[in-house]
Design brief:
The structure is a homodimer.
Chain A: H1 2-5, H2 13-25, H3 28-44, E1 46-47, E2 54-55, E3 69-76, H4 79-88, E4 93-97, H5 115-123, E5 133-136, H6 142-155, E6 162-165, H7 181-189, E7 192-193
Parallel strand pairs in A: 3-4, 3-5, 5-6
Antiparallel strand pairs in A: 1-2
């Protein structure tokens, strides 16, 4: 068991041993619940046919939730980014998961990402709703910025579609003094007009 | 000497001891240069009559530099924030140093900051140049945000003046997954339209 646990990311030999001894001491029903959860992952997890997020049905819960605004689509790299945006409780639209970011050196080009599916999705009226805005929420690092630039280029000519990019700048609670030059430069050039 | 050095911020007893023993081993001219620099601080540092930044003359180097754009003023809390913005090499305007941020619990209200001087400066044409944009670059924390809100309110009614706020959002090189909810929420709500 220690060997198997040690293969998990972020679990080193010592943590694996600690988890293993913890499991020895818990009640059998707790072990059963963990085993059942693992079984559900193995058998049940699929990808949403609309957005590409992990799902336990053909359509994920967000894509099948009628209260979510289908005209607003937030494009992210990975399913874990969907969770990050959901935690903000600020976003009431839907998602599109690319499955990564452009990285030519690792052989990841546009065809390796779910970009064609995004274009199809914008072209079709899913559930009778047109997509009117695409928010590009790829990471603000080299690959994510390259992906954002590429997406802006291919989405530019679609009539009636607004394309936006999440803001880069100073994190909340931060301090100018401790911001790196690049971030503070972005915060300045991306300043918002208030009056 | 160890006692005196230990009074400096960020210098604990051990660092003070290390610095003291280092100074014992350096050449006398190096000590002279340090002493002279300290003397210049004691005798010479004043505040720029225009922007309130630290200066060695009536006007600081930035306010007296004709190549800087006097129509664009970046409002910051402290002189160290001027240095932070200068490091980005993105900003070619001038500054206004408030000398802090609104903090009613510590007794810092509008009258304790250089806000009246800012209004005077906007009213006067300094060197024949009108101020057309004020960029509020206070820290994105509670006091800095309160100060920004206050400044927007009092600057709102000045005709022909644009007021802007530096962007809050994800720092460059960052990752959605590790952003806190508040920052990611700001990055979303402050998204920039690209197309």
């Amino acid at each position: 068991m220690i060997d198997e646990l040690g293969k998990l990311p972020g679990v080193g030999p010592k943590s694996a041993q600690r988890i293993a001894f913890h499991l020895l001491s818990v009640e059998p029903p707790d072990i059963d619940r963990l085993t059942a959860a693992l079984g559900r992952v193995r058998d049940g997890v699929q990808f949403c046919e609309v957005c590409g997020n992990v799902s336990d049905a053909d359509r994920c819960r967000i894509c099948s939730d009628a209260r979510r605004d289908g005209s607003l689509v937030c494009v992210v790299e990975e399913p874990k980014d969907v969770q990050a945006v959901e935690r903000t409780r600020e976003f009431r639209g839907r998602y599109h998961v690319l499955g990564g970011a452009l990285d030519p050196l690792s052989g990841i080009g546009p065809d390796q990402l779910r970009i064609r599916q995004l274009l199809n999705r914008i072209g079709e009226r899913i559930d009778g709703v047109d997509i009117t805005e695409v928010i590009i929420a790829t990471d603000p690092n080299t690959e994510g910025e390259a992906t954002a630039t590429y997406l802006v280029r291919i989405l530019r000519d679609i009539p009636g579609l607004t394309v936006s990019r999440i803001a880069s700048g100073l994190p909340m609670g931060g301090d100018l003094e401790f911001a790196d030059e690049l971030t503070l430069g972005r915060a300045l050039s991306g300043r918002r007009q208030m009056v």
